[in-house]
Design goal:
alpha+beta; nine-stranded mixed β-sheet; three-stranded antiparallel β-sheet; 16 helices; 15 strands
Length: about 450
């Protein structure tokens, strides 16, 4: 007689549960991330730059706190208390040599007086500067590391895409202010400045700024830091930015560097100015026309050539002395550049910068940069920088193979990082055991071997 107890009929089987498991992890891919960080000397650099003064009451090292923040950002985790819970993960505790989770009690949900926030606030402005500002005769972490990655790439020519991004806040965080905010008008925000090395998707440099800062505020000093840090193998730089960066001082700086540039024009009377120009129709079927003309702003030392393209946005019906006519409504795009191309060529190159906006969304939405906040500006600056660092680590550890390089960070988290496993210990050996039929097993092993061999 057949055993019918194993057949699924009206209900599924329900099993007991308990929160008593230990030595398990949700993020087994962090083991490879830690391996890569060790090979790159990142853990050693953080430990050297941020030494801990150990006292009888000291339970956690500054390096443990900072690396836990970077790793949690890598996993798409935000908020201080969630980071604290994250450090209770079995693998995270093993990697960071933690005896217990940082602030594993629930009191941290009610106050910012916990180890993570307290450590960041204590580091303050000096800690933020150590992370990201290029200062003479002083080691910095992020810019120095990015320059080394760029040098190791072997590239001699790069494209720098500059941009800014608004990160709205809910509260009265220090340094947050009302400014240009398309997603949440009237809300306080921060307004970081960024520049990517487009060929690598690397976020090369960033400044954390108040929300009232205009797009191009500080861009001259910002790019001076970039220029000083670039490795000597970079012989040619092409700088590209939107109309928010249209500035004579910026163009003077770029020309003094010997960099090529392409920036979209922003002028109050631009539409009126363009309508007065003589246009050359280059495509009669699509009604595309171009023009170029010299322009000198009041603060400029000399005139520069502006190049514009005119295309049809739509056709509308109008009344002309009682007669109905279909007329085109034009849209314009105007550029300033050192490239000897006409407006159509510049327009094509400019549109390629739209990919950097996708990378910004990955920085904010995937590694949660700017989503974890305290009430202190410099602590928030450090949180932003560490999240950016997590994004760059993700990008660089996948550079060796196109199929990994092309993936968005969220996809990378799903198949490589967020893989549950059990942690076993035998003697002095610690091992993580993942599900034997993991769907991406072959890819997981391939990437791990690439990191091991690097």
């Amino acid at each position: 007689m057949k055993n019918t107890k194993k057949k699924l009929k009206g209900q599924s089987k329900v099993v007991k549960y308990s929160f008593t498991g230990n030595n398990i992890t949700k993020y087994s891919g962090l083991n490879t991330v830690a391996k890569y960080m060790n090979k790159q000397g990142i853990v050693k650099s953080i430990s050297t730059l941020f030494p801990t003064e150990w006292h009888s009451a000291t339970k956690f090292g500054v390096n443990q706190v900072l690396i836990s923040i970077a790793m949690s950002s890598f996993c798409g985790i935000n908020r201080i208390c969630k980071i604290a819970s994250f450090t209770g993960d079995g693998l995270v505790r093993a990697l960071l040599k933690l005896d217990k989770a940082i602030n594993e009690n629930r009191a941290c949900e009610l106050t910012e007086g916990n180890t993570i926030s307290a450590t960041l606030k204590k580091l303050g402005q000096g800690g933020a500067r150590k992370l990201q500002t290029c200062l003479p005769d002083r080691q910095v972490l992020l810019l120095t590391k990015n320059a080394r990655w760029l040098k190791e790439s072997g590239m001699e020519s790069i494209t720098l895409d500059a941009d800014s991004t608004v990160k709205s806040v809910c509260g009265n965080q220090q340094g947050a202010a009302k400014g240009f905010n398309t997603t949440k008008k009237g809300a306080k925000s921060y307004h970081p400045l960024l520049v990517f090395v487009s060929e690598m998707k690397l976020l090369y440099h960033t400044w954390f700024r108040t929300g009232s800062a205009y797009t191009a505020n500080g861009i001259v000093d910002f790019l001076k830091e970039v220029e000083v840090s670039l490795p000597k193998n970079i012989a040619k730089v092409f700088f590209r930015a939107d109309s928010g960066f249209f500035s004579g001082k910026l163009f003077d700086l770029l020309e003094s560097f010997g960099w090529d540039y392409l920036v979209k024009v922003k002028l109050k009377n631009l539409a009126v100015l363009l309508k007065k120009q003589e246009w050359e129709v280059i495509d009669t079927q699509k009604d595309i026309a171009i023009c170029e003309f010299a322009y000198k702003a009041g603060s400029w030392k000399e005139a520069r050539i502006l190049k514009a393209i005119r295309t049809v946005k739509e056709y509308v019906e109008t009344d002309f002395f009682g007669e109905s006519r279909i007329v085109p409504v034009y849209q314009y795009a105007c550029y300033i550049s050192t490239y000897k191309l006409d407006a159509t060529g510049l327009h094509k190159i400019y549109k390629q910068r739209s990919t950097s906006e996708t990378w910004i969304e990955q920085v904010k939405g995937h590694v949660m940069a700017g989503a974890t906040l305290t009430g202190d500006f410099w602590a928030n600056d450090i949180l932003w920088q560490l999240s950016v660092f997590a994004y760059n680590i993700s990008v660089m550890m996948r550079q060796k193979k196109d199929k990994f390089k092309r993936q968005e960070h969220r996809t990378f988290i799903d198949w490589f990082i967020s893989v549950p496993a059990k942690i076993t210990k035998s003697g002095h050996q610690t091992e993580i055991k993942m599900y034997e039929n993991h769907f991406y097993k072959a890819d997981w092993q391939e990437l791990d071997k690439l990191i091991e061999a690097a």
